[in-house]
Structures are given as C-alpha cells and as structure tokens.
Design a protein that fits this description.
The structure is a single chain. This protein has about 650 residues and is α/β, with parallel strands linked by helices. It folds into five domains: about 160 residues, 2-Layer Sandwich (Beta-Lactamase); about 100 residues; about 170 residues, Rossmann fold (3-Layer(aba) Sandwich), CATH 3.40.50; about 80 residues, Helicase, Ruva Protein, domain 3; about 55 residues, Arc Repressor Mutant, subunit A (Orthogonal Bundle). Helices cover about 45% and strands about 15% of the residues. It is built from 29 helices and 21 strands. The strands form six sheets. The chain has a five-stranded antiparallel sheet, sandwiched between helices. Helix 23 crosses helix 25 and helix 26 crosses helix 28. It is elongated. The structure holds adenosine-5'-triphosphate. The site of adenosine-5'-triphosphate has 18 residues, from helix 17, helix 23 and helix 25. One of its GO terms (molecular function) is ATP binding. Keywords: ATP-binding, DNA-binding, Nucleotide-binding, Transcription, Transcription regulation. Pfam families: AAA_lid_14, HTH_8, Sigma54_activat.
Length: about 650
C-alpha cells in the first residue's frame, strides 16, 4: 500500500513537471533533473502510464551479446569478483551494452521471479528512452557514473530500486558497456548508496583496462602512474604505441594526458597527435629501452603536459615475448605439454612427469574422477622410452571380482571351468615391453593385492594353472580417486603394496581449481570438432558459463556437456542455452559457487566449517590447507555436519 501511495505521489510530481511546473524539483540532483526533462520533453514518456519491464527475446539478446562478445569474455573475471563482493549485501549485477540491454547478469536464483519482475534480468532493456531515468540509461546518456536511488527513477514501477552504474569505454573513448549494481530494497537515505559509486567505478576501470590490454596485446604499450610502486600493479595510464613512438590508442587516463598536451601545444592540423616521446619528453630509445634500464623495469619521465614526474614501464607485444622466452623453455614433449598451459598445480605435475617418463619407478596418479588420470598415464607412456610397447589399461573397479584374477594373470588351458579352451594370456603379460595402467587400484581385492605385489617384487607372473612363473618387463602406473591412507587404515589395502606402487605420486587438480580452464575447455572442444569434422563456434556466453561452473565430474563431464551441446545446438554456434541445464549457472551464467548455501547447519563444528567455506568462496582446498587436513577430510566433515555448498547436488552425484 505504502508503495502505491508513493508511486502516486511520484507520478503527480512528474506530471506537474511535464506541465511545466518545476517548483517541486528543488531537492532534485541536476543530473536527475536533466534526465527527467529529457523523458518528458524529448522521449515523450508519460509519467502517468508506468511501462512494463521489457525483456528481449533470446534471438534479439543473442545479437546484442554478439556485438560485445570480446568484451564479455574479458570482463568475466571482474564481473565475478564484483558480484562476490556485493551479493552478500543483497545486490545483483548487470552488464549492459551501450544501448542499455543487459547482456550479462549475476543474481541469486532464489530471488529470480522478483528480479525478473523488476527488470533486473538477462535481456532487460534499460535504455533511458524506454525505461526513463535509471542508472544504466542515464549513465549511457551522460557518459558518467551515477547512482539512481528509489524516487530518482522516472518510471513509478522502478521507485523501490536502487541502482549504481558506471560506463565502460572503448579505447576511442566511446561508451561500449555499462556495469551496474542494483538492489530490490534499500534504506531510504541516498547516503546509504555512497559505497557503490567508487566500487562500480573501480571495477569498470579495471574491465576497461583489461579490454585495452587485450585489444592491443600485439602492440607496445606504455603503462604509467604517478606512484612508482603502483606502475606494474595498477598503472592507471595506458598508451599503445608503434615502434616509432606514434600513438595508436590510449585509455581514459592516457587520453586525458593527450588532451592536456594538445591544449598546451595546439597542433598544426586537427588530426595531428603528439607522439609518445613528445608526451613524456623523452627519446624513443629511452622509452623502448625501459625494460633494461633499471631493476624494476620502470623509468621516471617528465610529462610535458603537466610538468609532473611520472613512472613508466613498457609492456611488450605478446608474440614477441613468447619468442624471447622460447629458447629458455625446456624441450617440447608434445604428449605432456598439451595437457595444460599456465596452471601452477599442472606445471608441477608435468615437470615431475617429464623427469619420470624414462624411469622405471612406479607412478601413482591421484585426483578426482574424470580429471584425466588415464590421459596422463598414456601421455607418460607415449613420451617415454616404452612408447613403442603396448599401453594396457585395466579398470579394477569395472571387472567383476571373480574375473579380475584370470584377466590380469591369464590362465592355461583347463585351468578352470568356463575358461577358454586355449587358455588366455593375462593383461600383465599383454603389457610386456610397455606400460600396465591399473585404474581404480583402491578397488583391487585383497587376495589379488598379494599376487600383484609378487609380480612387482619378482618381475614375473604366474598364470592360473601354471607351475612355472613367466618373467615380465612392464612399467606399472596406477591411479585412484580414493584416499589410500584411509583404505590402508581400514585394512582394505596393503600398505607394502601401496609403497611399492607409489614410487612417485602425480596429483591432478580438479578442473574447477585449474587456472587454465579456458585452455582445457578449448582443447576438449577442438578435439570434439575434429572428431566430428565440424566447424562450430563456442560463443562467449557459453564459455563464460563453462568457466564458472564447478565441474564435479571434471574433464569427463565437460566433454559430455560439450558433446551434448554439439548434438543439440540448432546452428553453427553454441550459446549458453545449448549447454546442459546444470552448466548454465544461475540466472545469467552466475557461477554457482557464489550462491549462498541455504541449509540449516546446527552443530558448532558444522557452523564453523560452513563459515570458513563461505569466507573462502567454497574453496575446499583452501579450507583444507587452513585446517591442516586433506580435501577428502573436509568433504567428509561437510557430509557429517550437513554443510551443503551451492553446487552440492553435483558434488555428490
Ligand atoms: N587434457 C585433456 N584433453 C582432452 N580430453 C581429456 C583431457 N583429460 C581428460 N580428457 C577426457 O576426459 C575423460 C576422462 O579422462 P580420464 O579417463 O583420463 O579421467 P580419469 O581421471 O582417469 O577418470 P576416472 O577417475 O573416472 O577413471 C576422457 O574422455 C578423456 O578423453
């Protein structure tokens, strides 16, 4: 009721404004007043007829997303980080294109119906011409960050909302997108939103700079700041230049410097631009030589426009950097190298794998299901001196217990009823000269563990029914997703066998923990395309959802999800809507890991654990490190206390 009364009063104020009475606007901020005047004068919006929220069709939304595809991709990390900060305060996040169409969104699924009604949703249109005065639309019009709080909105439908938006400009200074945080409810006082403007501005600037660095990654870029300590970390000025010092593009701070320079020294022609040596009062050689001039790869220059000192570093084109670093990197081993790019845990695994590939030492590969243990075992085999020999993979969990002995060790004719009349060469012997890969080793029955131990110790195998052992030359690689320490403690696995198998351990990280998820997604996708001889584009919104998903089934689940999308997508591109439901994230592809758990946890220990998990963004590995226990132990404790992460359904499936 209160809202309806407020809406009526609001409408009356605006109707009076449309009739030329401006007396009621004395407390109104100038920027809002200008926008209201545009709404009634220019757009002819009728304040007496609030308009329903407009949400675009999937097809129309797709077109808008396409037009900012590259930006969406670059912005993702910033969008996720900002949302992680504002979600606990009850805010949602919108990224719109320059026309005010919401092309990316983060919000809580539990609030979806209310958010959709309010227009805080993927595809919602916040163009000032349609929605009236609002943070996004007015921000685009004014090209400046703005808070639009409650009754500052033009349309009476929106007056319970509070919204703060900041523009994101392209390297030419044109607004290409708007970053917005909004809440359905907020305190009445405008000051309650004071935190929002600097926060959204900061992230908009970071996204803008990330986009600049991405667009000009193949150019020389000067990065500068007035504080030496901040240049590498967050140098605010960016200017892309050519080798002769001419300016290609600049970010907001860089453009500001150029403008001041031009005001002081007006050019002889309107198209003439100052060069970098002119801007920094330097020789081009000094600028190009920055990296070797000092230990911290920074040099001080005088900015001619302001006479201020400024500290500058040089970012080299990515291609040139790659070439420079190539000679020092170790000799390529394609079978191993293609498994990862720049993930620290994978680097450690692959570094050790390189050393082990030609050794006879037994290797135990651990990691959650689907992390690629068999793929790594095969790569180890393919890259080592046994590559020409066979690679025999045995899944100990998949073979019935009654058959596993005969399968592994083989048997002579007539060794047991039901066997083949000619007998059978066991898998151990089939791996002669090559590698025997025993997957799910934790599931091997105890009696067989003793026999396997003998094979490893004596390097010979005794087929069923034989009275003489046969020598074997095999390398054994095993894998498990189980906690071997627990199996040993429970008497299910022989400790002596474990130590023999665990000559070295390679621990594969879960896909959700990998910093090179983008590379993994791309390579799995490319492999599927090659298999199917198809050419299909993976659109940025799909990539964004894939990057944000928790992947309880790891690379296997990823592969299945992409295969599903390829099989069901209508066109020659995959969008977020073509992915299996669980990977589409919360509304607008929000990473599930950011959604709050809604479970009631009663025990003290459970609550402490839940608080710790929440504080780390449900990073189980980090919590395990903080508590000094293993990850499986954290999962077990979560299960015991009923601590349910947002993505638990997948984790337990
Ligand atoms: N780096 C990779 N590139 C492409 N596909 C991969 C990669 N790693 C794993 N896969 C694919 O993911 C699936 C699971 O891999 P794999 O069988 O090696 O995992 P696993 O850890 O051994 O699984 P499990 O624990 O269930 O035995 C396979 O289809 C494999 O082809």
């Amino acid at each position: 009721m209160a809202l309806l009364t407020e809406q009526r009063q609001h409408i009356e104020t605006l109707v009076r404004l449309s009739e030329g009475h401006t007396a009621d606007l004395s407390g109104c901020r100038e920027v809002i007043r200008r926008s209201w005047e545009r709404c009634v004068g220019e757009y002819r919006l009728d304040p007496g007829r609030p308009r329903p929220v407009r949400v675009l069709t999937q097809q129309a939304l797709k077109e808008h997303q396409d037009s900012v595809d590259e930006l969406l991709h670059v912005a993702r990390a910033g969008v996720d980080q900002l949302y992680a900060q504002i979600a606990p305060l009850g805010y949602v996040l919108l990224l719109t294109d320059r026309r005010g169409i919401t092309v990316d969104f983060r919000g809580q699924t539990t609030q979806a119906p209310a958010l959709r009604r309010a227009g805080l949703y993927l595809g919602a249109d916040w163009d000032e011409r349609y929605a009236g005065t609002c943070a996004v639309g007015t921000c685009v019009h004014e090209a400046q960050a703005i808070t639009c709080h409650q009754r500052e909105h033009f349309d009476a439908t929106h007056i319970s909302l509070t919204c703060t938006a900041a523009p994101i400009s392209d390297p030419q200074g044109q607004v290409i997108a708007v970053l917005d945080i909004s809440a359905l409810q907020s305190p009445r006082a405008h000051e309650s939103q004071n935190f929002g403007l600097p926060l959204v501005n900061l992230y908009a600037r970071m996204i803008e700079d990330a986009y600049f660095l991405h667009r000009y990654r193949d150019c020389l870029i000067l990065r500068f700041d007035s504080a030496r300590e901040f240049v590498h970390l967050n140098g605010r000025g960016l200017i892309a230049i050519q080798e002769d010092g001419s300016v290609i593009a600049a970010n907001g701070v860089g453009r500001g410097m150029i403008d001041t320079h031009l005001r002081r020294w007006p050019p002889w022609s309107s198209s003439a631009m100052p060069t970098a040596p002119q801007l920094f009062d330097a020789k081009i050689g000094d600028l190009l030589g920055i990296l070797s001039a000092s230990d911290d790869q920074i040099r001080a220059f005088r900015v001619r426009a302001s006479d201020a000192t400024c500290f500058v570093t040089l970012i080299e084109p990515r291609r040139r950097l790659a070439m420079r670093h190539a000679p020092s990197s170790p000799a390529p081993i394609p079978a191993l190298d293609r498994l990862a790019t720049d993930d620290p845990a994978m680097h450690r695994v692959l570094k050790l794998a390189r050393r082990l590939r030609n050794e006879e030492v037994s290797v135990l590969i651990s990691g959650e299901t689907g992390t690629g243990k068999e793929v790594l075992a095969r790569a180890l085999h393919d890259s080592g001196k046994r590559a020409k020999g066979p690679f025999v993979a045995v899944n100990c969990a998949a073979i019935p217990e009654s058959l596993i002995e005969s399968e592994l060790f083989g048997y002579l004719p007539g060794a047991f009823t039901g066997g083949r009349s000619k007998g059978m060469r066991g898998l151990i012997q089939q791996a002669e000269g090559g590698t025997l890969f025993l997957d799910e080793i934790g599931d091997m029955p105890l009696p067989l563990q003793s026999r396997l131990l003998r094979v490893l110790a004596e390097r010979e195998v005794m087929p069923l029914g034989a009275d003489k052992a046969v020598p074997v030359d095999i390398r054994v690689v095993t894998a498990t997703h189980r906690e071997m320490g627990e199996l040993i403690a429970a008497g299910h696995f022989r400790e002596d066998l474990y130590y023999r198998l665990n000559g070295a351990q390679l621990r594969l990280p879960a896909l959700r923990e990998r910093a090179d998820r983008h590379y993994v997604i791309r390579s799995v996708f490319d492999a599927l395309l090659a298999e199917r001889e198809r050419d299909v584009r993976l659109r940025a919104d799909a990539m964004s959802a894939l990057l944000g998903y928790a992947w309880p089934g790891n690379i296997r689940q990823l592969k299945n999800a992409l295969a599903f999308a390829l099989a069901t997508a209508d066109e020659d591109e995959i969008t977020v809507h073509d992915l299996p439901d669980e990977c589409q994230g919360a509304i607008g592809g929000a990473p599930k890991t950011f959604l709050p758990a809604l479970q009631a946890v009663t025990s003290d220990e459970g609550q402490r654990l839940q608080a710790l998990l929440k504080a780390t963004g449900w990073n189980v590995s980090l919590v395990a490190r903080q508590l000094g226990v293993s990850r499986p132990t954290v999962y077990r404790r979560m299960r015991r206390h009923g601590v349910v992460p947002p993505n638990w359904q997948e984790l337990t499936s």
